[in-house]
Write a structure and sequence with these properties.
Protein name: dihydroorotate oxidase (fumarate)
Strand order of the largest sheet: 3-16-15-10-9-8-7-4
Distance between the termini: 31 Å
CATH class: Alpha Beta
Keywords: Cytoplasm, Flavoprotein, FMN, Oxidoreductase, Pyrimidine biosynthesis
Helix content: 25-40%
Largest sheet: 8 strands, parallel
Bound molecules: succinic acid
InterPro entries: Aldolase_TIM (IPR013785), DHO_dehydrogenase (IPR050074), DHOD_1A (IPR033886), Dihydro_DH_chainA_dom2 (IPR023359), Dihydroorotate_DH_1_2 (IPR012135), Dihydroorotate_DH_cat (IPR005720), Dihydroorotate_DH_CS (IPR001295)
EC number: 1.3.98.1
Number of strands: 16
Organism: Nicoliella lavandulae
Oligomer: single chain
C-alpha cells in the first residue's frame, strides 16, 4: 500500500499528499500551521481566512459539536492579513494556500492588490462564502456581484487565484455559478464552505447552542457530506478542466475521501473531523483510503478521479 500515489496538482504545484485542512480548523496561528505542514500525511495548508485587520470574531459560545457534525458562527477570528502573508512568504517544504476574506468587495480588491504587490508567489484563495459575519451576505450567492468582482480583480491580479464557494442546492444555480467562474483564469475552487445558517435546538434546555445570530450558524461534518459531494460533482461537470476542485465537507472516513475523488476532487480538506480527532485523523484517513485503493487495484488517485458511474 505504501507505493500508492496520493498526489494532486493545482496550477502546476505538486501536492505530494491529497490532504489539506479546511480553512478555519487548526490554522489560525503559525504554530498550528507548522503542525499541519510537519505532518507527513498533509500535502499543504490553507490559512485561516485573513481579513485586512485582525478580528476577534463573534462572541462565544460560537462552535458546538453535534453527534453527526458541528455548527459554528466563528465570525472570522484571525490575526490579520500581515500575519498570514508573512507566514506564507517564508520558505516551506509544502505548498501553501493563503485564504483571504474581505468584509466587502472593496476589501477583497484591496487584499488582492496587496498580494499582487507582495513577493508571495503561491496560491491565494478568495473566500466568497463565509456565512457568519453579521450583516454580510455570502458574496458567491450573488452571481452578478461575483462576476463583477472577479472582472475587477483579474484586471490587475496576475498570480494564481482560486475561490472558496458556499454550497449550491439547485442544478440551475450550478449552471449559473459555473458560467461566471469559467470566464476567469481561476486555478481552483474550494467547495464547500459550511452549509450556512442552520439551527440546532437543545431540547433539554429549550435553547439554541451558539450565541451569535440567535443561534444560526454554519453546519459542517458528516451531516454535510452529501451536499459536499453533490457540489464537487456538479462543479466538476461544469467547470473548465483547468479549474481544479478542492473537495471540502463531511469527510469522516477513507471511504468519504474516496467518494470526493470519484466526484472529481483533486485534493481533499478535512474540517470538523480534524477538530474532533486532531492531526492523527490524517493517518487514519490515509490508512483507510489506501486500503480501499489497494482492494480495488488502484495505484494513484488519477485511476478513479472523476470517474463516478451513473445508472
Ligand atoms: C468563520 O470564521 O465564521 C468561518 C469561516 C468561513 O465560514 O469562511
Amino acid at each position: 500500500m505504501s507505493n500508492l500515489d496520493l498526489s494532486g496538482q493545482i496550477n502546476g504545484q505538486q501536492f505530494e499528499h491529497l490532504f489539506l485542512n479546511a480553512s478555519g480548523v487548526h490554522c489560525q496561528s503559525t504554530t498550528e500551521l507548522d503542525d499541519l505542514l510537519n505532518h507527513p500525511a498533509v500535502g499543504g495548508i490553507v490559512t485561516k481566512s485573513a481579513t485586512l485587520e485582525k478580528r476577534d470574531g463573534n462572541p462565544a459560545p460560537r462552535y458546538y459539536e453535534l453527534a453527526d457534525g458541528s455548527i459554528n458562527s466563528m465570525g472570522l477570528p484571525n490575526f490579520g492579513y500581515d500575519y498570514y502573508i508573512d507566514y506564507v512568504k517564508q520558505s516551506h517544504a509544502k505548498p501553501t494556500i493563503l485564504s483571504v476574506a474581505g468584509l466587502s468587495a472593496a476589501d477583497d480588491v484591496q487584499l488582492l492588490h496587496q498580494i499582487q504587490a507582495s513577493d508571495y508567489a503561491g496560491l491565494t484563495e478568495l473566500n466568497l462564502s463565509c456565512p457568519n459575519v453579521i450583516g454580510k451576505p455570502q458574496m458567491a450567492y450573488d452571481y452578478a456581484g461575483t462576476e463583477a468582482l472577479l472582472k475587477e480583480i483579474f484586471a490587475f491580479f496576475k498570480k494564481p487565484l482560486g475561490v472558496k464557494l458556499p454550497p449550491y442546492f439547485d442544478l440551475v444555480h450550478f449552471d449559473q455559478i459555473a458560467a461566471v467562474l469559467n470566464q476567469f483564469p481561476l486555478t481552483h475552487v474550494n467547495t464547500i464552505n459550511s452549509v450556512g445558517n442552520g439551527l440546532w435546538v437543545d431540547v433539554a434546555s429549550e435553547s439554541v447552542v451558539i450565541k451569535p445570530k440567535g443561534g444560526f450558524g454554519g453546519l459542517g461534518g458528516r451531516m454535510v457530506l452529501l451536499t459536499a459531494l453533490a457540489n464537487v460533482r456538479a462543479l466538476r461537470q461544469r467547470l473548465n478542466d483547468s479549474i481544479k476542485i478542492i473537495g471540502t465537507g463531511g469527510v469522516k472516513t477513507g471511504a468519504d475521501v474516496f467518494a470526493h475523488i470519484l466526484c472529481g476532487a483533486e485534493l481533499v480538506s478535512v474540517g470538523t473531523q480534524l477538530q474532533v480527532e486532531g492531526l492523527s485523523v490524517y493517518d487514519r484517513l490515509t490508512t483507510e483510503l489506501s486500503r480501499i485503493m489497494a482492494d480495488k487495484g488502484y495505484h494513484s488517485l488519477s485511476d478513479f478521479r472523476g470517474k463516478l458511474k451513473t445508472i
